[in-house]
Fold each of these.
Amino acid sequence: MRPWLFWPAVILMIVAAVGGLVLAPEDYQQKDAFRIIYVHVPSASLSLMVYTVMAVAAGVGVIWRIKLAHAVAAACAPIGAWFTVATLVTGSIYGKPMWGTWWEWDPRLTSELILLFLYLGYMALRASFDDTQRADRASAILAIVGVVNVPIVKYSVVWWNSLHQGPSISKLAAPSIEGSMLWPLLVMMLAFMLYFGAVLCDRLRAEILRRERNASWLNGDLMKV
Amino acid sequence: MNLKDVLDMGDYGAYVWSCYGLTLAMLVLNVWLAKRSLAEQVLHARRRQQMNSEQS
């Protein structure tokens, strides 16, 4: 784990959690239940961001035939899948008191579930090949085609009449969320990004070692746990 | 805001705290899985290198 990414992430998560759970005032409609956004929204943002990183890396790998780019894409998949699971689970728990249901086949919820299937499909497809190069190419195509789902998830609440609430911060106009409620959310998102970077470093090292285990250039630095 | 208010979350405590708990569990699990996968690959690579050096 890269300490210069991991520990700042932990500290920022604690700061944002205190900000979101204690310092931010309760919402006038959703009361204290709104505090779920401080874990739900960063998980959801990262589920989309990690997929985008994965698809771009896969694209770079296919176009310029860079092995390391394929390794980055492969390392992203399990992390993104876990963020997607967290989004769906926390969203479901958020939905029960706010909408009266754990699940609804709503555009936002359904497209996020498809995102999870894309991650799982990507990992399953990679695992089904013994040859790494063939696994790289086939899974890259899936990752690139699947990226069309990212804007669908993001704009589903704008394009369709969704049960899910609309965007709060990513609007062209001013954010529809008060500053005292906004800062813990932004800090938590930054913390999640740093955390992703920290976990990605370990996953990427593992992936490089898996691919290059016979290489003579493997040295002490890569082999440290 | 006292401790009881923070824990109760205005009767939404079960929903709010379970979300935070599950997210924390996911974050810890992700770190652990990544560490385990890295440790596994390091072990494999070391073994392979040892075998190669013994053969040569």
Amino acid sequence: MLAEVKTDCKLVDAELDKQFAGRGSQLALEVQRHLDECERCRTLYRYLEEEFPIGTVPREVEHQIVQTIQGSLKPVSALRSTAAIVAQLMVVFLLISAAVISQMKVVGFEVMNLPQLIGISMILSSGVVLLALSLAWQMRPGSLRRIPEWASIGILAAGLLVGIVLLFPWKAPNAFVVRGWRCLRAGLILAVPVSLVFWFLVRRGAPLSPRSLGGTLGAIAGLLAVTVLQYTCDLQDIGHLLVWHGGVLVLSTLVGALVGDCLSRFWPRVR
Amino acid sequence: MRRVERLVEDDLRGLMVRYQRGDSEAIDELVRSLSPLLWRYFMSPHISRSDTEDLLQDCWVRIHRARHTYRPSDPLVPWIFAIARHTRLDGYRQRRRRESRETLVATPPEVAVSGENPTLSDSTRFTRLLQTLPDSQREVILMLKVSEMSLEEVARATSSTVGAIKQKAHRAYARLREIIEKEGK
């Protein structure tokens, strides 16, 4: 059980937030008054205010680190900006999906009506932006992430789920498994080389969590496969889209995360 | 309050850029400027001194491998601590794996932080209090207080959001108050 935090104690929390946000200033009168009255807040504030002694690193350790680094020191070119990486990933996504779709019959365009076409295209495009941003953030340690990586995948999955349920009709399944399996297999076969292409694009980054990076790479490859299936498949009903097209996204994300996890365990230099 | 800023923050980015260009003097200065902060971050009563040294060395090797991912327009300290955080997590996992296979046959090695002391300073008491916090809260307080980072910098270093960091900090304050109150009785 946490201690009861009184309203006035929260004034101290807010004051600490201000100080840790780098806007430290004179204590407000009410905060000072509360600190005079409340001993636990006074002690906490004193602990957090006090200058903390920094460590003394043994000279020989520092020397060893410097020597190790200097032994392999050579100039490096800095990674491109986040915006440039996002743009590159989106362009590659667009080019690959357009190239694959152009090689197939675009039956999906004919089967979907205008609201369905616009709605699903918007969801798929938003998904590409989300995943490209997530990959760009993961490439650079210390990036300020507006959306955590697993939340990006969750938002995309939720968006697709809601979009499909709202936009597409429910039809009685006809050869549900046979025709669905065909879409799932084609989608997964496409997702494998596509994930390698995206890995090639992000390989210069320094991902701190190979599992998350693998999951996001799997998700973007799965999304590309879903995009291709969406415009080339003649079965545009809720059941087929959710189970078989959605299955491509789910499976490719899971496999990507698993591959990332295995690589980080058995091949530590991947970090 | 901001020690790094006071000491060298203005120079740190310049040093990092020179390091990216292959300047060997720049890495020497960077290691000497930032290692004490990293050392303090890695130190714990549960980690031996030699393990702390290993963590510091491993962290710098990782920083070296990832140096091209730093952009001069971004703050350097969160970039460094994002790498340090994962070094620490991996070190923790490795120690757990190692300890699960080992049997204690001798006295445990010297720890990087001294233990009980009859005349405890506030910082020593605070270090002990921190050990009672859950990992995620302790990490936030360590970065805010010991490494003297801002809320946004901690959010960057932990791949989180400023709101989530504030929430963790507030929970940590509540827990610390509770322990302070108990100790006072």
